[in-house]
Amino acid sequence: MSLEPAIALLKRLELFSGLDPVRLEVLTFTCERREYAPGATLFEAGDEADCAFLILDGEAAMLARNESGAAQALRLESGDLIGETALFEPRRRLTTVRAVSSLLVLRIGRDMFQRLIGEFPEMAGAVASRLAERLSTLGDELSALGGRLEGNQNGTKRGRGIDE
After folding, report:
1. Whole domain around residue 97: which residue ranges?
2. Burial class of residue 156, CB neighbours in 10 A (0-12, 13-18, 19+)
3. Cα(43)–Cα(152) distance, integer angstroms
4. Which of 71, 74, 101, 116 is deepest in the core (most CB within 10 A)?
């Protein structure tokens, strides 16, 4: 199987967009490809999270329960990266992901990812830069949300949703 489709999908992801094509090729080559039949489970909520999955082809559903216990689902498709925080720290899965159709994924293991970052400092720098950008954007969004919530508390925006 050619590496090019996986490399093209990785390039589109913010986390990997700063990596040069050679490093993306190394990352893609070292990762495992897995196939899942419709209905198969990639992982369950509560499982150890030791990898991320990049959907190469097919569709999956991410299933979770909200605070009131109601089921929620999110459709995932080609190009979606599932569980990227597992690349950086050990944790447990918060959701369950199942294949909706035949599914082909690239399994990016934390150990391999961490080893590549250690071996290629420029890769670590590119990933760190993308993460810093994301944190900055998140900080800006939280500040804006805080301002909107403060406005609601002061009665300046009564009756309006915070997602307007």
Report:
1. 4-153
2. exposed
3. 40
4. 116
The pair of structure tokens assigned to 17 is 């967009």
Structural domain includes residue 136: yes
Nearest 5 degrees, angle CA 99-CA 48-CA 139? 90
Q: What is the pLDDT of residues 83-121, one digit of tens each?
A: 988 988 899 999 999 999 999 999 999 998 888 888 877
CATH of the domain at 49: 2.60.120.10
Is 160 a member of any domain?
no
Q: Give the chain's end-to-end CA distance (angstroms, integer).
A: 45
Look up the pTM and report it. Answer: 0.76
